[in-house]
Amino acid sequence: MNVAHQISRVSFIGSGNVATALGLAFNIAGIKIDEVYSPNENNAKSLANKLKCSWVKNIEDLNTNSDLFIIAIPDQKIIDLEKYLPKINGIIAHTSGSQSIDVLNTNKNKYGVFYPLQTFTKSKEIEFTNIPICIEGSDETTSNLLIDLAKKISNNVVMLNSEQRQYLHLTAVTVNNFSNLMYNLAHDVLIEKEIDFSLLLPLIQETALKVHNINPSEAQTGPARRNDKSTINKHLELLNSYPDYKEVYRLLSNQLIRKYHDKL
Amino acid sequence: MNVAHQISRVSFIGSGNVATALGLAFNIAGIKIDEVYSPNENNAKSLANKLKCSWVKNIEDLNTNSDLFIIAIPDQKIIDLEKYLPKINGIIAHTSGSQSIDVLNTNKNKYGVFYPLQTFTKSKEIEFTNIPICIEGSDETTSNLLIDLAKKISNNVVMLNSEQRQYLHLTAVTVNNFSNLMYNLAHDVLIEKEIDFSLLLPLIQETALKVHNINPSEAQTGPARRNDKSTINKHLELLNSYPDYKEVYRLLSNQLIRKYHDKL
């Protein structure tokens, strides 16, 4: 099997948010996109159009000559892919935070992981320069090829093994999805009380910025941090008509009190 | 009792983070600071020095001629203040999110609330222009005087009644302290797994920015949002050695599933 000295031609298996974001970033960096495969013809066409490349809707028609095939499909479909994938040359890499590299260890290909750590939406173009890209390869040559490629679109490229990447993905869910749930709970109550949610935006922004300079343990403030039971109880009372929110408030406050006070 | 047509001289009761941040902002806006009172002599001196004004450590020595006395002391001490405060002219206003305006309704003064919604630390100077300042007054004249003053340091001044302000404070705790707890949980695990926490910073940043443009309900993504039980269970397993974190992950995921799926 031949592996190129550098990756200069890429194909995408999948046409969702991650494929779109990566494809556009590759385009800007001058990496040639060969082809997009998606069983959804409209999505395949639409992304191929953006990336000025060809597309196929049947996987057996895939052009097998790219240096790299990037799998950007839902996690649970990655394992099944092997059954249908034609024999390809080059490297095959998935983009999943939570899947081990081993899910690709089923044929004779070189394989790896190319995981960009960010939340992508098709509607919003993302500046890739600072987005961390986490690389893992089936062997050193593959790792190095993937690293070289990643460095063409990002200044923030790291090697992580599968266990580390899984923990990173778990914490990414925590800081992204769960923080957004906090915004979500706040939003629902403020709407009902006829208070403009945008009043919270400077605070949300400052909270996110603060941990760029000091670690989250030092940045922690608030009633639970200072064990101010009177304010906590007042807040729990305000939440009497919001049982889900109240449960969250109680658990998170208790954990903060335990973390900062009970251990003293 | 005389109330000025505008507030041009301010004194501070308290010398902590809020007094410091407000005092510096007033200074820049050309509002004269008369005096700082704090029972802690060092803090009183230090703030008076920054604000180029006098200071007292005994409340009975307070210069009673300011147009406005801003109370910036811990919530639970506000009520007691009344016992010691000499008879003053002008307005008295507290800066608390969670205390009703009525805690100041104990003498014949004009009174109000001047609540800046932000997280303050003495070490970091804050640009006040976009910080929301929430105003409430004992009467229309007082409200208007406080609004006029607030507009000299911020473009984001709103009138809120005490109930609304208490809900706003509760949601501020949620988006600030509880989001920071998410960062905190993530940080502790990443340290142990020898993964650099700064990999999460672009995602934390993007999560905070996203809700500037779309509402948090639409911005919600992740395994629980799409009811992806397989990823959720994998994450819970990864958290077996972190029981507190696991409890948070489980509760928040269940609430998201309930919010986005069970109601469909």
Strand order of the largest sheet of chain A: 3-2-1-4-5-6-7-8
Distance between the termini of chain A: 61 Å
What do the pLDDT scores of chain A average to? 93
Q: Percent helix among the residues of chain A?
A: 40-55%
Q: What composes the largest sheet of chain A?
A: 8 strands, mixed
CATH architecture of the largest domain in chain A: 3-Layer(aba) Sandwich
Task: Compute the CA-based radius of gyration of chain A.
Answer: 23 Å
- Can you tell me the overall shape of chain A? elongated
- Could you give the count of β-strands of chain A? 8
Q: Could you walk me through the main structural features you see in this protein, from its secondary elements to its overall organization?
A:
The structure is a homodimer of 264-residue chains. Chain A is of the alpha/beta class and 264 residues long. Chain A folds into two domains: 9-160, Rossmann fold, CATH 3.40.50; 166-262, Orthogonal Bundle (N-(1-d-carboxylethyl)-l-norvaline Dehydrogenase, domain 2). Chain A is 44% helix and 14% strand. Chain A contains nine helices and eight strands. The first copy, chain A, has helices at residues 17-28, 41-51, 78-84, 140-151, 162-192, 201-210, 216-219, 229-238, 243-262; strands spanning 9-13, 32-37, 54-56, 68-71, 91-94, 110-116, 133-137, 157-159. In chain A, strands 3-2-1-4-5-6-7-8 form an eight-stranded mixed β-sheet, covered by helices on one side. In chain A, strand 1, helix 1 and strand 2 (32-37) form a beta-alpha-beta unit. The longest helix of chain A is centred in the C-terminal third of the chain and has 31 residues, at 162-192. The model of chain A has no long low-confidence stretch (mean pLDDT 93). At the A-B interface, helix 5, helix 6, helix 7, helix 8 and helix 9 of A face helix 5, helix 6, helix 7, helix 8 and helix 9 of B.
